Amino acid sequence: MTRCAFRPRSSSGISDSPGDACPSTLTCGLKNRLPCLSATIEDHTMPNMTTSERDAFLKEPGVLLHIGTVREDGTPLVTPIWFIYDGTSILFTPREKSAWYACMQRDPRVTLCIDEQPLPYRKVIIDGSVTVEHDLGNDAAWRDLYQRIASRYVPEEAAAAYVRNTIDQPRALLRVELGKSKVTTWRMPVEGEDVTGIWHTRYYAEGSDYARKSRDG
């Protein structure tokens, strides 16, 4: 039996008892998203996700992407959007008059943030550039993909209706390739991993308890 290092709070706001154990094949209250691990992180840094963990997370339905672009005056613009991951790239569909689409037409560089609210707080940050898969007005060529994107967020019937009712509204299909981008992932530590991994070691003040623990193990 393996226990989680961090447990979600109950509806009363009180953490579940640390004595409540769960099988190592489950995820210890983490909604079946990440297996409990028994190995200790030797470098005492925040745990990164493996490629398979990252890919599985990016394919989970319902997770929003926050895209960071730059306005013409240099101020940042962050927009929550729907997306789909095809195994190599993040794809998304700005509308013709979207402010963030105008930003990318001026400057294709973007930062993508995909994260979750429940434990273990998995996070993926992608710094890259967009390329045009399909320009405005070619929506019919990728209608099936459009519906697959919508189906990640609403039921199939609603997704079909959404596509049917908006297919005549021009959209572009854009791509950010992970292989050509800087990709950073991390999550909270789980049972069996170094508890100081809640932060990267560089954040701990010199001489503090966690600085010593992260250094000495």
Summarize this structure as a short list of keywords or feature phrases.
single chain, 217 residues, alpha+beta, Pnp Oxidase, Chain A, 2 domains, 5-stranded antiparallel beta sheet, 4-stranded antiparallel beta sheet, 9 strands, disordered N terminus
Could you give the topology of this structure?
Blueprint: H1 51-58, E1 65-70, E2 76-81, E3 84-85, E4 89-92, H2 99-106, E5 109-115, E6 123-129, E7 131-134, H3 143-151, H4 156-166, E8 173-177, E9 182-186, H5 209-216
Antiparallel strand pairs: 1-2, 1-5, 3-4, 4-8, 5-6, 6-9, 7-8
Helix pairs in contact: 3-4
Characterization of the model:
- The chain has 217 residues and is of the alpha+beta class.
- It folds into two domains: 66 residues, no CATH class; 130 residues, Roll (Pnp Oxidase, Chain A).
- It contains five helices and nine strands.
- The chain has a five-stranded antiparallel sheet, covered by helices on one side. Strands 3-4-8-7 form a four-stranded antiparallel sheet, with no helix packed on it.
- α3 packs across α4.
- The longest helix has 11 residues.
- It is elongated.
- The chain starts with 50 loop residues before the first helix and ends with a helix.
Number of strands: 9
Rg from Cα: 20 Å
Specify the helix fraction band.
Answer: 10-25%
Low-confidence segments, given as residue ranges, are: 1-44
What is the architecture of the largest domain at the second tier of CATH?
Roll
CATH class of the largest domain: Mainly Beta
Strand order of the largest sheet: 2-1-5-6-9
How many individual helices?
A: 5
Which fold name fills CATH's third level, the topology of the largest domain? Pnp Oxidase, Chain A
CATH homologous superfamily name of the largest domain? Electron Transport, Fmn-binding Protein, Chain A
> What fraction of residues sit in β-strands?
15-25%
Question: How many domains make up the coordinates?
Answer: 2
**Averaging pLDDT over every residue, what do you get?**
82
Measured between the Cα atoms of the first and last residue, the distance is 23 Å
